[in-house]
Write a structure and sequence with these properties.
homodimer; 152 residues; 5 helices; DNA-binding
Chain lengths: 152, 152
DNA sequence: ACCACGATCTGGAATCATTCCGAATATTGA
DNA sequence: TCAATATTCGGAATGATTCCAGATCGTGGT
């Protein structure tokens, strides 16, 4: 436990961030939770741990962690942003149109050939490229089927 | 002029949509404007033409056109959705972090190899895949440089 | 041409994630 | 320990989009 805290502390300092309770808590939640959490989900868990955190603080912390490279932010239109622990590899995301949940998808071609646009206008600079797959997850497909059956 | 209207009318009917003033106007705006327009920009142009259209109508029409396959909707987090005339090819988009403007990028590899995920969990279904490049457009890069110079 | 039935449009309120603000507090280097 | 300033707080504001209920319009059948 203690070493875990130490570890998180070290990583915050290494990233040039001050060590605060909200930051430790948020970082810990991101590390522990598998999958991708919304700011609200994260806040709920942090609340359970600290007793109190402002909405603002959670957003601030997440922004700081994202800029520092400790977290990755995946924003998908129509759904609140989700955060995952930062991993170096360039993987993609599948977003369910139903529940908005996001799962990781390994890059189909390994070397990410799509991520270097061939013809970019002069003066334009790409700093990030992402691939998003849209569709229906297994669970939503199941409940949809159920719903449709009920309707008919 | 008349033939242009006729043409739009025909396309609406062919798509199984009723022909209304807002729909003709919105479709016309999308066809004529190059680039990608926000709902608000489209509304302004439609207003100039018809004198009046509700915000709702514009959203409804855009949704209908999108579903019918006459328009394509590009949603980018942090910026209002943008609409473009539907073209069959699968091209990608570059989104400027500064102004939010969106430009088309031809698929780097032609055959879109990235768009077929290799390992998708059982029961999941992909209906769309998109590649988004994030960065700074030439114009914003220029004004940023200016701003920074002013600051120092 | 006329009617009736939906589909569509209107106007205004509501939603909801996220951000802005100024004041209060906590962390860190000296 | 103390000052400097990075974070946090709480509450209000934002802004694109959607919900609602009623008015209006387009269309297929008479």
């Amino acid at each position: 436990m203690v070493s875990q805290i130490r570890n998180l502390e070290t990583r915050l300092r290494a990233a040039g961030l001050r060590v605060t309770a909200p930051r430790l808590a948020v970082l810990e939640v991101i590390e522990r939770r598998r999958g991708h959490s919304t700011a609200d989900e994260i806040r709920r868990e942090v609340l359970a741990r600290l007793g109190t955190v402002s909405v603002q603080a959670v957003y601030d912390v997440l922004a700081a962690l994202t800029i520092a490279g400790l977290a990755r932010c995946i924003e998908t239109p129509g759904h609140p942003a989700r955060y995952e622990k930062r991993v170096g590899d360039n993987h993609h995301h599948f977003v369910c149109r139903g529940c908005g949940d996001t799962i990781d998808i390994d890059c189909a071609t390994g070397a990410a050939p799509c991520l270097t646009p061939k013809a970019l206008p002069r003066g334009f600079a790409v700093d990030e490229a992402e691939v998003t797959y849209w569709g229906i997850c297994a669970e939503c497909a199941r409940s949809n089927a159920t719903t449709n059956r009920e309707k008919s």
